[in-house]
C-alpha cells in the first residue's frame, strides 16, 4: 500500500470557495469605490477628496490583498515552495504599501485641515490593527 503522507489532499470544493472569496473581495472594493465616487465626490490626493483615499486603500490593502496573501499556500499547493513564498510575500508587501498610503492620506488630510490625529476609537483601533499587521509580517 502506498503512503500519501507527503501529499496534501485538496478539498474538492476549494476552487469554489476561492472563487467566492475573490468575488466577495472584488465586490467590497467595487462597492467602496462606487460609494466614494457616487456619494462622496470621488478620490484625489489634494483637497477635500484626499480623505476618500483612506477607505479605498484600507479595503484594497487590508481586506483584498491580505486575504489573497493568506490564500496563496492553499491555492498554489502544487507549486514550488519558493514560488508560493515569493508570491505570498509580494502580496503582503503590496497590501502593506497600499494600507500605508491610506494612512498617509488621512494623516496628511488632518494636518492640512488642522484636525487632531488619533482622536477616536476608530483611529486607535486602526493604528493597532496596522501595527499588529506589520509586526506579524515581520515574524
UniProtKB/TrEMBL annotation:
Source organism (scientific name): Felis catus (Cat)
Highest taxon listed in the record's lineage: Eukaryota
InterPro entries listed in its UniProt record: CYB561/CYBRD1-like, Cyt_b561/ferric_Rdtase_TM
Pfam families named among the record's database cross-references: Cytochrom_B561
Keywords recorded for this protein, A-Z: Cytoplasmic vesicle, Electron transport, Heme, Iron, Membrane, Metal-binding, Translocase, Transmembrane, Transmembrane helix, Transport
Chain segments annotated as transmembrane: 16-39, 51-74, 86-106, 118-135
Record's keyword annotation contains Magnesium: no
Membrane-protein topology: Multi-pass membrane protein
Lineage per the UniProt record: Eukaryota, Metazoa, Chordata, Craniata, Vertebrata
UniProt function note: Transmembrane reductase that uses ascorbate as an electron donor in the cytoplasm and transfers electrons across membranes to reduce monodehydro-L-ascorbate radical in the lumen of secretory vesicles. It is therefore involved the regeneration and homeostasis within secretory vesicles of ascorbate which in turn provides reducing equivalents needed to support the activity of intravesicular enzymes.
Translocase is among the record's keywords: yes
Main subcellular location: membrane
Protein name, per record: Transmembrane ascorbate-dependent reductase CYB561
Domain Cytochrome b561: 20-139
Cofactor(s) this protein cannot do without: heme b
Known catalytic reactions: monodehydro-L-ascorbate radical(out) + L-ascorbate(in) = monodehydro-L-ascorbate radical(in) + L-ascorbate(out)
SMART domains with a match to the protein in the record: B561
Subcellular location: Cytoplasmic vesicle, Secretory vesicle, Chromaffin granule membrane
